[in-house]
Specification:
Layout lengths: L8 E12 L6 E14 L2 E10 L2 E11 L5 H11 L1 E2 L2 H7 L11
Antiparallel strand pairs: 1-2, 2-3, 3-4, 4-5
Length: about 100
């Protein structure tokens, strides 16, 4: 399969507020990075990558139909309403992400 080298495109970054564990007093932060892969104008796949304390924890790819007006505005909807993509297909779309960290 020949995949366009311009994709995936990094499109978003969000930080979930840190939390403090009662026992240790240590503050932990979850951070999310989003990368998109347009399969078609109206079909978008998005990798949601989770970092825990700045280290890659896991990732998953979601895919769904979108209006196709502006993928940079539509990618968040894909991660909340889209279907999870099989691991073997996700690895083809996002080859730079570690295989062993794909979310089950």
């Amino acid at each position: 399969m020949n995949i366009d080298k311009r994709f995936p495109k990094k499109v978003g970054f969000s930080v979930k507020k840190g939390f403090t564990t009662k026992n240790t007093g240590f503050t932990s932060t979850y951070t999310y990075e989003y990368r998109q892969y347009a399969l078609d104008r109206e079909v978008l796949a998005v990798a949601k990558i989770m970092y825990f304390n700045k280290e890659l924890f896991d990732w998953a790819v979601y895919c769904t139909a979108v209006p196709g007006q502006n993928h940079n505005d539509e990618y968040i909807k894909v991660t909340t309403t889209g279907s999870k993509v099989r691991k073997d297909l996700a690895i083809l779309m996002f080859p730079g992400l570690p295989v062993g960290k794909y979310r089950r």
